[in-house]
């Protein structure tokens, strides 16, 4: 029986812990919310009485659909309180850990994955967690391909159960399957089978996680109370409250004023020095499963020209972007996509093959037949290089960084029309291909094959105007990349896989698929010791079950 292996060769994790004078964070009192009113109530000494207040930039629109199957435009961080996967990928340690499955084992040729389920887990309404819930969840993905964003059912033949044992059968070796599984939340069949999963918005979520969805106060907050029968043990906190803010600036202000204990990653980076100067203030950073970039729509005829894309990439001063925009609090996104989290699988030589050089960028355009007009804009065959550029509204750092990138592109000789959209709108625009250039983040599974396949294989995209089945929002299509990924999908030899990953990344660097910004998964600000204590930032993400069940009221 196989237990938990190290999923990646290297994990890049660090905690920046600075303390100074002053500072206050959150509230240790439990709150009960109804409508617009917030009332203080007595806390239980038996449970510790702690209340976690965590902040995020989130709108009511992002909470209109609470389905874990939702593919875009939703705020997903709350899932970590309520729902669980069969396996959990720990981004700090780089390891797969048990969750709703206790263990797994492969057959010899990696076409059959057998999992033993966690028999201690139970749904928050008291119903038993069973294999039927797993079968139902994966059948929803099969029957609703739009939910199967990793196209698992293109590789799977069946998912079956024998008692509390689950068997995943694939057509060919599927080495990345455990990492994919770590991204799929399991839902309760006894609730969902009564609904149409394709349209069900799940207004009263029930999961197996450590906290139970309680009260949603429109535009203000969502409260959760501790699930005392949680299989890992009852949380030491009594309550967790998501405080909703309409901008990163307002969320950051609440953090600086001590009105919240942490955020799920939101912080105006210009305020980072002020935050880290406060007493008990800490910032957890780690390389993670989320890259910020400027997406390029390859279906735009001008952007389909590799010379234009390469010139644009070379016009961006990424080092200055990270220094001034993110105060060096993040790691770079590579033009080869895979972050340092993937260790030796990262093609560092290819990643360094394209660098900032404005003069060379202009030379590339001119050699490709573009001529600069009197207005300073390059054109070819009477068509100016002129594009719309979408970025997030209500996000000061994003807007500042968008301004920097737009100015660099203008200096190159490209006309830019800036446009703002909410995070939810950006997700929809990206998925449907309704953009020229769009600045946002893209998440990916914790496996090099999975990360490359879901983002760059042509089967993971769609014609502009139709939603993508995966996260290839670039509308990128390269037959050679497809072929190499298809070869990788049926291999289990790590040396052969590594060679294919290196080759794929070399092609991505040559094609300049997107404008790289930074890896944005893990920079979590929090206060340790003011109102709450017990965080373990070296062992797991701050906003993870490992921390959520162990943090407690500070004495």
From TrEMBL:
Highest taxon listed in the record's lineage: Bacteria
Example GO biological process: peptide transport
GO CC entries: ATP-binding cassette (ABC) transporter complex; periplasmic space
Residues annotated as signal peptide: 1-25
InterPro entries linked: Peptide/Ni-bd (IPR030678), SBP_5 (IPR039424), SBP_5_dom (IPR000914)
Region (Disordered): 23-46
GO molecular function: peptide transmembrane transporter activity
Annotated ranges, domain Solute-binding protein family: 95-459
Residues that span the membrane, as ranges: none
Entry keywords, A to Z: Signal, Transport
Stored PANTHER family: OLIGOPEPTIDE-BINDING PROTEIN APPA, PERIPLASMIC BINDING COMPONENT OF ABC TRANSPORTER
Family: Belongs to the bacterial solute-binding protein 5 family.
Record's protein name: ABC transporter substrate-binding protein
